[in-house]
Structure formats: structure tokens, C-alpha cells
Design brief:
Oligomer: single chain
Strand content: 5-15%
Subcellular location: Membrane
Number of strands: 5
Order of helices and strands: HEHEHEHHHHEHEH
CATH topology: Rossmann fold
GO molecular function: sodium:potassium:chloride symporter activity
Keywords: Membrane, Transmembrane, Transmembrane helix
GO biological process, one term: sodium ion homeostasis
Pfam families: SLC12
Helix content: 25-40%
Shape: elongated
Radius of gyration: 19 Å
């Protein structure tokens, strides 16, 4: 939840009055509306009532304003009170070198490094460690890994000290090793000094507009 080793903060963060802080929602993909519904429900509670909700969406510079207006209109149809919609036009940029290095170092203990071991197949190396990541898998999912790293950079830049951060939970792929998937989750919340929730609906519509 938080990188800070402060058990008292973790225990009381949802009990304390949050004042006029913000709840930041990183809505990366449509999941039926759950990711947008949860912060709305939180602000119905007394301790969170004064919090502002900001929604971050993926977009490009050419259609930034159009995408923002469309999202605002959509939220109004859902009758969700959101204070601001921010289009992330730089989410496709390559992450910084130090962020990439941290990720590579974090997954190093969970890699097979099979291409460095002559005469041994991936299946043989995985007999005692079936969760480990082969060199081919690491390369196949490199772009997805970099996107998670880049998103973390954006979250740390914009939401370092917010009341709460909600991020769309990545969809697990059948071909993706479990160790790599868990590394993605760790990366998304790395370096945050506030509670973070990774959340995703099951594609069942939970908002009124969907149900009409």
C-alpha cells in the first residue's frame, strides 16, 4: 500500500478526516465502471466528503482537449462528481534510465537467464522454479513492462501526496509469468507516499448509464 514503514498511518488513514486532499484515479481501460464508482462512493462518506476527485486518462496531444471533453461528458451522464479530467499525453514516452534499471534489478532474482546457460532448456531450468521468467518472455513483454514503469513515473509526479490513488489493475495474460506480473504491480505503486489501490472490474457494468 505504501512504501513508508508506518503502521500507525496505515491503520488510521481511512479513519481520519482527509480534508481537502485529492483522490486520483488513473483510468487506463474500461472495466465496467468500478474504478470510477469506488472514489465516488468514498466521497459520500463524511471523512472523504471534502476531497476532490481527479481522473487521469490516456490520450495524445492532437486530441487532448477533445478527449477531455468527451470524458467529462461521459462522467456527467454517469452522474459522477469529478473535479478535473487530465489527459496523459506523455504516457507512451520511454521511461527514465534509472526507472528501467530499478525494474530490471527488481526482477533479476526471478529470471532464468537461460540464454547464458548452454545445454539447458527452459523446461529443465524451470523444474525447480516454474515461476521464473525466461529471457524470451522478458523480451516479449518488454513494451508492457516499460508502460507500467512509465505510468509509475507519471503517478509519482502528479499524485505523490494525495489522499488516495486508484489505478486500473493490469489484465493478467496467460503467457505472462506470474513473477513478471507481480513485478508490474510492485512497479505501479513504487515510491508512493500515499495509499494506493489497484482495482479492476470484471467487465460487468456497475453504473446507471450502462444499465439503462
Amino acid at each position: 500500500m505504501s512504501d513508508e514503514d508506518n503502521s500507525d498511518q496505515i491503520k488510521t488513514v481511512f479513519q481520519n478526516d482527509q480534508g481537502k486532499k485529492t483522490i486520483d484515479v488513473y483510468w487506463i481501460a474500461d472495466d465496467g465502471g468500478l474504478t470510477l464508482l469506488v472514489p465516488y462512493l468514498l466521497t459520500r462518506r463524511k471523512r472523504w466528503r471534502r476531497c476532490k476527485v481527479r481522473v487521469f486518462i490516456v490520450g495524445d496531444e492532437q486530441n487532448e482537449e477533445e478527449g477531455r471533453k468527451e470524458m467529462i461528458a461521459l462522467l456527467k451522464r454517469f452522474r459522477l462528481d469529478v473535479n478535473d479530467v487530465i489527459v496523459m499525453t506523455d504516457s507512451e514516452k520511454r521511461p527514465q534510465a534509472k526507472s528501467l534499471t530499478r525494474f530490471v534489478d527488481s526482477v533479476a532474482p526471478f529470471r532464468l537467464y537461460d540464454e547464458q546457460q548452454e545445454g539447458a532448456s527452459v523446461q529443465e531450468l524451470r523444474q525447480n522454479a516454474p515461476w521464473k521468467i525466461s529471457d524470451k518472455e522478458f523480451e516479449v513483454f518488454r513494451l508492457k513492462s516499460e508502460r507500467k514503469i512509465r505510468l509509475n513515473e507519471i503517478i509519482r509526479k502528479n499524485s505523490q501526496h494525495t489522499a488516495l490513488v486508484l489505478v486500473s489493475l493490469p489484465v493478467p495474460h496467460r503467457d505472462c509469468p506470474s513473477a513478471l506480473y507481480m513485478a508490474w504491480l510492485d512497479t505501479l505503486t513504487c515510491g508512493l507516499h500515499c495509499p494506493a489501490v489497484l482495482i479492476r472490474g470484471n467487465q460487468q457494468n456497475v453504473l446507471t448509464f450502462y444499465c439503462q
